[in-house]
Write a structure and sequence with these properties.
The structure holds two protein chains of two kinds. Chain A is built from three helices and nine strands, in the order ββββββααβαββ. Chain A is an alpha+beta fold. Among the domains of chain A are: 43 residues, no CATH class; 58 residues, no CATH class. Among the domains of chain B are: 175 residues; 132 residues, no CATH class. Classes of the chains: A alpha+beta, B alpha+beta.
């Protein structure tokens, strides 16, 4: 069964599978069926209910879900909290770009650091880590390249041949 | 006459809190897990409180007194929410935080709500006796926690003005369990309406009813009735929850959206020969892309690729972020709970963000571990011979290193629902957040120390790119594949003979795979590319023909390039079981050669 947004997907044969056999409509069995010429796929969308009575007060189902989200969202960090905690923790977006012609290379996602961490890291410290990653990649393959995405994640591009 | 400041506040008295686990009917034992914390949130005034109290080894702690402003209309819904967070590390040692277990995947949560009046008033008098609240938990089978609260109010907490405020807040209180029960009934009405509509299209009731997929959201949204099994939501409710939460937390998603935009520029736009440091060049390029259908597709793909890469950096897929239940370990010095992992449990996270509660818990846990490690080293150095000092210092430094690493590079442990919901939330932020507010948030994020000078230089280009993404991001929706919490055992007997080719054959193959437990549930982001007009089948159900969708895998993104010899869609995994599941879910997708 596949649901997409608020709908459940059903598929119908576009034509009879064999002469005389009935056409079937059933829950969509996999993603490849959607848009396939042999089937029509439909989304059966159900609406939220307009009236729900709780203790003689009429709410909409949408309002009840607003309440649920309102209570849950007090658990979410604020943007300020996220910025502060990321900045305090030496996290840095490094904006490395993949090399040209990387299509011919395998990408390996690397997590972690090569050099030891220190409490307070300057941008120069991060640059040293970037260089260390490049050296580490070349130890794996002479033509391998390291691209630093963030202080914690980098990609290693290794030639396929 | 102006109202004195103290009368503009509602004063909540301090409480002693004890956490128990329910071992059997009526048998309560205090929870002794080291580092168990509790926070009291006050949704009635929309505040995100960063309060946290540790419980001691007898499961006891104190929640400090709190004053909340009463200058806005109280929120209708649960007044107060208590959240419990503890480390359910496997092989717990009493009184010791394990330094090798600083991840979040074994964190156990429990939640409960109550009204402000329930907390402070009993039979119209100040409450003085302890009272108990049942807390729902990430345990799949049962509500296993009880919170015992003993208020310590003073005369000030029961002034006429304060009691008036308490009653105003009480009038807006609806218990979580009541909301959950109402939503459960709504789901039932919708399921019947859909089955009825499908019956008229020749679909047997068993097929539409069994595959009316629902999923559990108990611990995060606290959608649990007292009956433990009734805490799932259907597609309409889940979709509304994702949309509403995305909208409510749009600001919090801007950080990752900025990362995603930097990735889009450096990975996709730059490779088209555009000078990404020039906002005018980026604007010109994206404007020309948006002038044609192919160009709009390219922009959408590039943005999704950026979002997936940003996700890849900050969290990793682990199905064990789902906790099935707890094992109770009865040590001589107390009862401890250990998390039990399962691949079909429930999600714990907040659309790809660590809940504040867990974040604060882990920060406090690291601080406690750091302090204990220092004390331990000082003690060991004072009583061990000098010849062992170097080894002791090295051992201590290793623990400190692990703490620093955890604090610096915490990768969020998430499952596929989180990955997909996070992608949907980023897309929703880009498509729907007020443009002026989004721009202000982008400035705050990209001017911060978390962006290198090279990344900061891209800020004008990021702002330019976001202006061109509003339309293409609005077609992205979360999609769920196959049933969570669905038992289809009864379907097995309905498959009697080899079906003819077509929809039925594929469907029966799917039922077979589910019965053989080759499939569980999966979630990813979908780009609904084309659909034909909507028509109503009945008051609740309408139907739309879908002509094409494109799935965007959030958990294990893999790029497919024309030079790759053969590749299945964008979903594959190095985990054999997951890979097999993804292949079955996708079906026979076109291959690139």
């Amino acid at each position: 069964m596949i649901s997409l947004g608020s709908g459940y997907l059903y598929s119908t044969d576009a034509q009879q599978p064999l002469p005389g056999a009935p056409l079937s409509t059933l829950p969509t069995a996999n993603i490849a069926m959607i848009g396939h010429p042999s089937t029509h796929t439909y989304s059966l969308e159900c609406e939220l209910l307009p009236e729900v009575t709780i203790r003689s007060v009429v709410y909409t189902e949408c309002q009840l879900l607003d309440m649920v989200v309102g209570v849950a969202s007090c658990l979410a960090p604020s943007l300020e909290h996220i910025i502060n905690s990321r900045s305090r923790a030496n996290f840095l977006v490094l904006a490395g770009a993949p090399p040209p012609l990387c299509q011919g290379m395998s990408r390996v996602v690397m997590r972690g650091r090569v050099l030891p961490l220190t409490h307070f890291m300057t941008e120069a410290d991060h640059a040293e880590e970037v260089r260390a990653r490049e050296i580490a990649a070349q130890k794996v393959h002479a033509r391998a390249l390291a691209v630093s995405i963030t202080s914690g994640t980098w990609n290693m591009y290794v030639p396929q041949s | 006459m102006s109202v004195p400041l103290k009368d503009q506040l509602v004063q909540i008295c301090p409480f002693t809190v004890r956490l128990f686990t329910c071992l059997a009917e009526g048998v309560l034992e205090p929870v002794s897990n080291d580092g168990t914390s509790i926070a009291m949130m006050t949704p009635f005034n929309w505040t995100k409180l960063e309060t946290l109290t540790y419980l001691d080894s007898s499961g006891e702690g104190t929640i400090a007194a709190l004053n909340c402003r009463m200058d806005t209309s109280p929120f209708t819904g649960p007044n107060i929410r208590f959240c419990v967070c503890m480390d359910g590390a496997v092989k717990l040692k009493p009184g010791e935080i394990p330094p090798n277990n600083l991840g979040t995947q074994t964190v156990i949560y429990a939640n409960t709500t109550c009204s402000l009046a329930e907390l402070m008033i009993e039979n119209e008098q100040p409450r003085t006796r302890a009272f108990q609240l049942h807390a729902t938990s990430s345990d799949k089978a049962t509500c296993s926690f009880v919170l015992q609260l003993t208020p310590h109010g003073t005369q000030a907490h029961y002034s006429t003005a304060n009691v008036g405020h308490i009653m105003t807040v009480l009038a807006k209180h609806i218990p979580s369990a009541v909301i959950a029960r109402a939503l459960f009934q709504c789901m039932d009405v919708r399921r019947n309406a859909l089955c009825e509509a499908m019956k008229s299209s020749g679909v047997e009731d068993i097929n539409s009813r069994t595959f009316y997929m629902t999923l559990p959201v108990g611990s995060l949204y606290d959608l649990s009735t007292d009956e433990a099994q009734q805490c799932t939501v259907d597609a309409a409710q889940w979709n509304a929850l994702v949309e509403k939460t995305s909208s409510m937390l749009a600001e919090s998603h801007v950080f990752k959206l900025c990362e995603a935009m930097v990735m889009m520029l450096t990975h996709s736009v730059a490779s088209m020969g555009v000078n990404i440091e020039s906002a005018a060049a980026v604007h010109g390029f994206l404007a020309s892309c948006n002038a044609s259908a192919e160009g709009r597709d390219w922009v959408s793909e590039a943005a999704q690729h950026g979002m997936r890469t940003a996700n890849e950096c900050s969290f990793e897929y682990r199905s064990d972020s789902q906790i099935r239940g707890f094992a109770v370990r009865n040590h001589e010095d107390g009862v401890y709970l250990e998390a039990q992992m399962d691949s079909s449990g429930e999600k714990q996270n907040l659309l790809g963000m660590d809940p504040l509660m867990c974040d604060l818990h882990m920060a406090a846990k690291c601080a406690a571990l750091r302090s204990r490690t220092e004390v331990r080293l000082a003690h060991d150095l004072s009583c061990k011979p000098a010849s062992e000092h170097d080894a002791l210092r090295a051992k201590s430094a290793a623990v400190m290193g692990r703490i620093l690493l955890k604090e610096s590079m915490e990768t969020f442990t998430a499952d596929c629902e989180d990955a997909a919901a996070c992608l949907a939330a980023m897309a929703s932020t880009a498509a729907r957040m007020d443009p002026a507010h989004l721009e202000a948030c982008v400035h705050s994020v990209m001017d911060s120390a978390a962006f290198s000078s090279k990344a900061q230089a891209l800020k004008p280009s990021v702002l330019a790119a976001l202006r061109h993404l509003r339309e293409s991001m609005s077609t992205l929706q979360i999609g769920l594949v196959f049933a969570h919490a669905t038992s289809i055992d009864e379907m097995r007997s309905t498959v009697k003979e080899v079906a003819l080719p077509g929809v039925r054959m594929r469907y029966e193959r799917l039922v077979g795979c589910l019965n053989a437990q080759k499939l569980t549930g999966h979630a990813c982001l979908f780009n609904k590319r084309a659909c034909l007009g909507k028509r109503k089948l009945n008051e609740i159900v309408s139907v739309t023909e879908i002509q094409a969708v494109k799935a965007s895998e959030g958990t294990n993104p893999v790029d497919v390039h024309p030079s790759d010899s053969q590749c299945l869609l964008v979903s594959k995994s190095s985990l054999p079981k997951l890979h097999e599941q993804l292949s079955l879910i996708n079906g026979e997708m076109p291959t690139t050669r």
